[in-house]
Design a protein that fits this description.
Blueprint (H helix, E strand, L loop, with lengths): L1 H7 L4 H25 L5 H21 L5 H21 L1 H6 L2 H4 L5 H16 L4 H12 L4 H25 L5 H25 L1 H19 L5 H4 L7
Helix pairs in contact: 1-2, 2-9, 2-10, 3-7, 3-9, 4-11, 7-8, 8-9, 10-11
Amino acid sequence: MSLSLMLLFGLDANVANGTNRLAIIFQSLTSSETFRVNKILDFKRGKAAVWSALIGSLAGAWVAVDLNKEIIEKIITIVMMAMLLFIFYNPSRWLKGDPERNAKPANLFEIFLFLVIGFYGGFVQVGIGYLLLAGLVLQAGYDLVKANALKVFITFVYSPFVFAIFVWHHQVSWIHGIPLAIGASIGAFIASKLAIKKGGGFIRWTIVVMILITALQTFNVIDLTTLFSFLKPK
């Protein structure tokens, strides 16, 4: 949604993609610290996912300088709609995780999976949270709350490096990125507190709502840019 708003302000897709990374850095930092303070963040088991995603994201960011926004948005929506099937097919798996699987160290498939997810995150970022959650819950065995905590930490680790690549290519608008980062930090703090208080069920239904809104926007059923057109500078 933030990408849509930045496009509304006249930024091209590449600059909007790069500018959005500044907000993501502060958003993921705020959420990670909130989860850490509440002793929910599990880095020890998730370190393979963290480093794999970091390496993949660097490759994805270099590719992203020639972003084709229309094609990528369609891919994003297809991936997220597929996730809805996973969420409703076995909801208890998302809420409780798989303790037996989570107790085992990461295998080669898991490392490769997060390398690919990281590449996607470096490339476009939009929807990456859903893919990280799917990998952390269905492959690594985390419950949804702990997966959400590790998801934002993974995003925080790779985002500064990815952001630096966009800065190097002059694809960041600071005048748009700074207020976006402030708002994202406030939203992340509130959302993290709600996730801790409400638990996996709240996160699950939040994901469902956000996926549906994104899908409707991508296939032009709703138009968020028109809805917020009053913000567009004259």
